[in-house]
Design goal:
The complex is a heterodimer. By secondary structure, chain A is an alpha/beta fold. Chain A has 17 helices and 31 strands. Chain A has a 7-stranded mixed sheet with strand order 6-5-4-3-2-1-23. Chain A is elongated and about 130 Å long. The chains are: A alpha/beta, B mainly beta. At the A-B interface, strand 12, helix 6, helix 12 and helix 13 of A face strand 1 and strand 5 of B. Chain B: InterPro entries: WD40/YVTN_repeat-like_dom_sf, WD40_repeat_dom_sf, WD40_rpt, Wdr73.
Amino acid sequence: MPEIKVTPLGAGQDVGRSCILVSIAGKNVMLDCGMHMGYNDDRRFPDFSYITQNGRLTDFLDCVIISHFHLDHCGALPYFSEMVGYDGPIYMTHPTKAICPILLEDYRKITVDKKGETNFFTSQMIKDCMKKVVAVHLHQTVQVDEELEIKAYYAGHVLGAAMFQIKVGCESVVYTGDYNMTPDRHLGAAWIDKCRPDLLISESTYATTIRDSKRCRERDFLKKVHETVERGGKVLIPVFALGRAQELCILLETFWERMNLKAPIYFSTGLTEKANHYYKLFITWTNQKIRKTFVQRNMFEFKHIKAFDRAFADNPGPMVVFATPGMLHAGQSLQIFRKWAGNEKNMVIMPGYCVQGTVGHKILSGQRKLEMEGRQILEVKMQVEYMSFSAHADAKGIMQLIRQAEPRNVLLVHGEAKKMEFLKQKIEQEFHVSCYMPANGETTTILTNPCIPVDISLGLLKRETAIGPLPDAKKPKLMHGTLLMKDNSFRLLCPEQALKELGLAEHQLRFTCRVHVQDPRKEHETGLRVYNHLKGVLKDYSVQHLPDGSITVESILIQATAHSEDQGTKVLLVSWTYQDEELGSYLTSLLKKGLPQST
Amino acid sequence: YRDLHTFELQAPTRLIEWARGSRVCVAGYGQSDGNEILQLIPPPTLLTKETQGLCPERDFKVECGGFSERPVYSLKYVPDTSLLVTSGPPDSSLQVWQVSAEDSDVIKSVSPIATENDTGQSWAKIATISARAPWVLHGSRLDRVQITEVESRKNVYTGAPGGSEELSGLAFLDCSTLLLCCATGQLCLADVRQPQRLLEALPVPSAPCSERWCLGTRHGAQGLEPSSQPVARLSSRGLLTLTDLRKTSEFLALAKARVPSPGSGAEFLCVSWAPALEGCLAVSGFDGTVHVYDTQSWDSSGREAEPIFVHKGHAFGGAGGSGDPPLVTAHTWHLQKPRTLLSAASDGSLHVWDWVQPCGKC
């Protein structure tokens, strides 16, 4: 039976490091190559030795696909391609290709420079790795080789995030990566067509969450900012260049306008350039609203939001500043933070997850005394708040996606088995498909039923429909033909034509059966008895009595002969060709029942 | 408001029940099967005393869930066990479920408690207590009330015959005293030790019209003499009566809630006492709002009372202009935080809100 094999390679359930191996129709694909953010040693990388003990990864894997730029999906890529060794193609969307190296470099800097680690990939490795990347467009079918093709679908979640369909022949797998089924201010919702894959692999980390409404989060965010600004404090919002920053800017701008607030809002110039640059490149990736505003005016020409200058940080009075980088580990946001940390009227709002080792991570875990370079201690008196706007699919979203794609099987990754039983039952009950939840390192085999199309020859079709009862839409009709498999094509032909094509001679098979009948009379009288009997019973058939004494029923021949030893017994020879098997068998059993007494 | 959180459930619920460990339970009541019973863990913000504005964990988590073939109209946890009991159309039998959150996240169905099926019987109302053993008090009609011991399925009490009024609510006042409320508004007291006999029946206020009534008793008031707590009754016309069970001949108070009239169906009428605020009760089921009243200023005049707070959130939620406006289906008070309530509506929304006492009161 053809099968698809799936093995998640990531280990540990907390933050989740995504790396899934899929074997489909002889092709091997690696989905995502993520880093585990919580570990400092080799446990942070997926265990690649599982893939092949001593062979070369490049030979084994047909391609690697990266769904989006979050480090728990691409963080281990340079390690994998340059340190472990892989030279094959790496597929990702254009925005992901543009943003990945920046995040990887940032991450590398923190890990090596700040934490002093040695066994880590270098900047050059990141560059070399990105050279192996082939960027793809949405809904574009990409031929990896003659048999394997992939297609990216919009996934929402972050800029450039995609769900991938991997297809070999008529077997296909869809991998969702992280996705979101509800649109937000700057990204649309994930969408896929009714592609009916054999398997849908979906992240399920947030399946058990019922999310607080967006309006509430935004309202609370605005409340905090407002409160701080009202009491004369300064608000620092560290952001990564893209995505959430735009959303928060739009939010603040609208709020400032409505409440007629006067405090200045700034964003650092680095942010503008990068953001504008990427938005211009990837405008089709954001949702309708942003696209419209971008067309009407430059994204960053807000009435209330101005470009930041380093000197402004020292200005008295309230203000709000967006600055990079997002985890407060270096650069402008860290500089501003150091200036403002000592004043309890100020506030810093962290917009997302911070990697261990960064200042962002430390203050979120409650640390209030930080050691800066030069052994200086920084006392953090400013308020520390956390606001996560990142969106993942919850149970409802997962059900929606399954409804859209109509897979034959579903596989859930990144959830604790105990906590997934309910969702598994829900999926199985509603869609009548099998749902799997492999543990990391465990291989799940999914049996597929590939459809093999076969052409039927016109001659055969005509001939078969002419025999027997008329074709009825409600009744299946059994047809006989010969399946010819030649040169990767499958055809159904009538036997004669098949024989001709193959250059084989046709052989006729004839069966003869002996039926013993008690009859002391002469052969031809027995024959007559048989004839009369059959004529009476087989009214729908053509029963003939030939001059030589033999009887034919359609094309079946019956002859009566004398038994060599026993005068009282006659032997009826019933003979038919293979094609008349059914009738032949019927006649034989009929005759075996015996002849009626009267002639 | 001091705080307001809005959530959306996949399917609307008409019940919100508290469970051990601050869990909250909701369940679907749709006509088709595949209704889910969900036991939720509220976000930490709701469990702590102080409200934190921005917090990493702001979401409800589904701790475990079960599938019910029938719509779930009422659900009660059975104290001292890991079981819960549900009821719903088409008949008055009860479904029993096992919750074992540590082992698996599925709420498993255990064999049901059957009742004699009469034609035209509606769904049973339920109350549970763990007295001599875990008991469930259930019934859809006054004469079909019974107490079943949950684990042994033994019938411990059967109600008095006669009186085929439909019940709209029932409660244990203590382990021997039952309070039954008919849809016509009549309240009956019964003693478990004296089956086949009702202790007394309390009259309905006002002129009879075809209104439906429901009951609100103060739960969580352990240690206090139960019959000293006033019992509230709410009618589909908005009339509220408070009765002291020790002085049943007269009403403690009578008031009219400010609700749109005529009341659209009495399907989701709900009145409940605040566990931590003296004299406060909440009313819902008329429209998309929840009203909070302070009954301490009420008298028996039947005047219209002014709510001290109105939660309007459900009326604004959901897709604008599509079909009927949402109707609040259930509400409940937070057991510890005095001014926090949870409310659910017919559009699947679930709100958690904390209101601020208006100035002038403490």
